[in-house]
Queue: 2 jobs
Job 1
Amino acid sequence: MKNHLSDELHQLLNESLIYTADGKVADYIPGLAQADPHHLSIAVSYPDGTCHTAGEVEDKKLTLQSISKVLTLALVLMDRGEGFVFQRVGKEPTGDPFNSIIKLETISPSKPLNPMINAGALAVTHMLVGANVEERIEKLLEFLRLITGNPELTYNEEIAQSEMETADLNRSLAYYLKEHDVINEDVEDLMDLYTKQCSIEVTVPELAKIGLVFALNGQDPDSGRQVIPKRVASICKTFMVTCGMYNASGEFAICVGVPAKSGVSGGIMAAVPGKCGIGVFGPALDDKGNSVAGWKLLEKLSSKYDLSMF
Ligand code: DON
């Protein structure tokens, strides 16, 4: 796909722009509500170090939001091991909205069904190693600086604070998890860590680079280093396929067919196995929390270049 991509990427982006009108910017986190609903941009990152982009990507950052869930999962799998992690969080899709509490109550023993829903992500964030919130977020940031090659990567304090003030549904999930011994730390500390994690800021090319490392089974083509063990990258990609687009993951697998993870800021990170990483940013969301135009753009790209794994 690479040789013709530059021009065609612009064309596909232009064709997808109209779909930005079909969605709404997330406003339940006030810091996200200021995003431009008409924005759409994309970057495709290749193993040889090239990166093609379309739309405005310079100086335009987005917060990872739920995309961060894949990265905390990778880090805790590396630090704690599969046995420890999956004793506390499951491996199955839910079919429910990302912030739903319902399965926590109906399944016994109470254990979040997977690491991509908020309950599961809170359980995974709880497993981040470190003496305090600052050490734990710093560890995650260092991991992301290594993957993106950006030593200045950090989180957006304003958006973290804005989520902290409004995250009562997540607080409820955390208290529920604490009652059932899935977590055992102070809920406010966990919320502080989780909101900072969700507010980590990247550019769209950095998002594509993260996707590329997963696409290459955890290897960073720039340094040649195995930054994520192959097995861990494989587990993360599997969750991206089964739960990465929440209760639209099955439809996305049919329409696009590559491992991908979305966030309510409007970002989508996709990993095309062995080929490339893709970052998309389109803040207007559908009713399930996925970027409407971002989805359409990936669908067009996948169909044009036959990217589906299935
Ligand atoms: O926990 C939240 O509600 C947000 N920080 C992240 C949710 C999210 O990105 C779900 N995505 N589709």
Job 2
Amino acid sequence: KRDHEDLQKIEEAIQELDPKSGKIKTFADLSSAISPATASGLHSSHFTNMTEIQEQAIPLGLKGKDILGAAKTGSGKTLAFLVPVLEKLYRAQWTEFDGLGALILSPTRELAVQIFEVLRKIGRHHAFSAGLVIGGKSLKEEAERLIRMNILVCTPGRMLQHLDQTAGFDANNLQILVLDEADRIMDLGFQSAVDALVEHLPKSRQTLMFSATQSKKVSDLARLSLKDPDYVSVHQDA
Ligand code: ADP
Ligand code: MG
């Protein structure tokens, strides 16, 4: 069991984080507010300075806020949600017996694989189980592994299929939902799959939504799945 006092200290450090102070520039500046496992995963993956979207979104994510984040491709959105995901489960003292704690939705298989690779790198010192659910195998084969996973990276259609059809699998205890590339999720016609999927999730969860562009479709989706969100947008320099 993790030391209660350690978790208390992390909670206190999170409360003191002020994203507007301009003082949180490096991952080391977050070190008292995140787990040693994530800090060393970031360090050994050679991530030192935060990008702008990370500076803005990670402190809010750690504070448990719902976020709608927009920043162009290549700006570092993956870590902006993966750090809060790992920390949410760490602070909840999530174990292999607690089932699915985090769900990350991606519009395409290729992007899901990329997210999963970053998760494996920065999450390697954690004991969470993580899997990819992107089809390509039979539902049954996928289902056998799925049931034991704490973190899943998936495409919306395939995930919905499992929630509807896989016996013994549910998301009733989910702590955090991420929609990455929400604009492309909408463009690719996944709106109804996402709507149906969200019906399977507890309302008490935290939700993080990221996109490269701000569009009406994304704000429509945000209205349905986010609670009193913080808007974080990073504009390109002129
Ligand atoms: P986006 O999802 O916004 O398109 P990614 O999360 O895929 O961006 O990151 C783009 C690239 O920037 C990746 O190669 C990633 O490893 C790198 N990167 C992200 N954050 C940092 C950082 N803090 N320091 C250095 N490189 C970073
Ligand atoms: Mg991305």
